[in-house]
Amino acid sequence: MTETKRKTPLIDELEKGPWPSFVKEMKKEAHKPITRDAISQLERSYEEHISHWKHGGLVGVMGYGGGVIGRYSDLAAEFPGVAEFHTFRVNQPSAWFYTSDALRTLCDIWDKHGSGITNMHGSTGDIVFLGGTTEAIEPIFADLTANGWDLGGSGSNMRTPSCCVGPARCEWACYDTLNACYNITQSFQDELHRPFFPYKYKFKFAGCPNDCVASIARSDCSVIGTWKDDIQVNNAKVKDYEKQGLDLNADVCDRCPTRCMSWDGKTLAIDNSNCVKCMHCINMMPKALKPGKERGATILIGSKAPIVGGALLSSVFVPFLEMDPESEYSDLKELTEAIWELWGEHGKSRERVGEFIQRVGLSNFLEEIGLEPVPEMVMHPRTNPYIFFDDEIFEKAE
Amino acid sequence: MAEVTIQQLADAMYDLVKSTHGKKNLKPMDVTKAMIDQFGEDSVDKALCKKALRELIDTGRCIYKYAGGSFVTLPEN
Ligand code: SF4
Ligand code: SF4
Description:
The complex is a heterodimer of chains A (398) and B (77).
Chain A: H1 9-12, H2 22-28, H3 33-48, E1 53-55, E2 68-69, E3 71-73, E4 86-90, H4 100-113, E5 117-120, E6 127-132, H5 137-146, E7 162-163, H6 177-187, H7 189-193, E8 203-206, H8 215-218, E9 221-227, E10 232-233, H9 235-243, H10 248-252, E11 261-263, E12 268-270, H11 280-284, E13 289-290, E14 295-301, E15 315-321, H12 330-346, H13 353-360, H14 362-369, H15 390-397
Parallel strand pairs in A: 7-8, 8-9
Antiparallel strand pairs in A: 1-3, 2-4, 4-6, 5-6, 9-14, 10-13, 11-12, 14-15
Helix pairs in contact in A: 4-5
Chain B: H1 6-20, H2 28-39, H3 46-58, E1 63-66, E2 70-73
Antiparallel strand pairs in B: 1-2
């Protein structure tokens, strides 16, 4: 291992233990002055409990407004190697499938031009190259594009869409997440590279309500696979689970959030009209149950992780949308453009679309984008005292 | 719609960015709204402004900068 510039007793602690250590990995690249100074500055930050990075500014490739995040050291005199330490976001392939050749190409480009430190992957999903100079920006971009790669999003634009592995590896996928993610990425290239919004806008595609990409918490537009018809049940296999020790009543039926299922020892009865597609029973008995056959996605809008205000989860906008790749997802695109038009014009600076909806009110927002309100948009309809179901009204009338 | 070319619009955008440089950060939407005000809704719309902005950025006369949000500004030199 190459000696770092100064002793680093504090961050060395992070090398101990059996788990992977980013410090250990960074030290492998410490033969480069940029990486060596990044390690030394990190130790200094641990000593002082303060970050020495400044970010923002004027860096980028010609024509793009995103993809490179300017980062500078405020201790440049002491650590000249990290005076400029920019971050590059590279658009990842759908569901993060790579050939080893592709990974080698990326690493070779980054070894040639930058620190050699990567983050696979950033929270939005991009491949992240950490630590390059301003001078290296255009050459990196040229090498990336020559090899079929492109930068991802940053700033007030559409961020790089991401998706779960979907039908590539998962039998529960209710639509082709990879195709949808790729299609949306290609269709909105202008919005990805040229900031035109009040703030960021993220898409995440999950193939079923398990939502392995956490789209409901982390994307302005969550596209979550679902089904319309009945859960597919194989009662013989349900019985097998029971024989293997699964307590069908305690562990499956009683944990169904709407209590819409029952087991009499032979047949699993499901009142599908009350199933809220939580996936619990399917997750418990994957060999016995499957999502229905009439599959598509629910479109939810408005989540964000907390920065200024609190965290928001997405809310249902379209309960069921067919996600046929032949359609080129035209309905989703139409809805997205209507939202961008309204929020783009009236959103405040750094206001996410979910916050905008809270400010102007959901009913006004729906009216402006031309969407009819439907019961599925109601949060917690079963416990909301202002919502009445037909049968309750009729019961009272009787 | 009276004829305003992309080039004319890009020039007007450039003048606006130059005149506010160092005084006010302009978002792409601020530039767009200013152009619609200047030329009138009948002559200029958002789609045309997007094209003009693209022209402005692609030729390097203006660049994007990030300062908490994305803004249109002049290159450093
Ligand atoms: S979200 Fe659903 S379809 Fe996608 S990987 Fe997870 S379980 Fe499979
Ligand atoms: S998916 Fe959830 S709501 Fe539907 S039947 Fe299974 S446990 Fe109940």
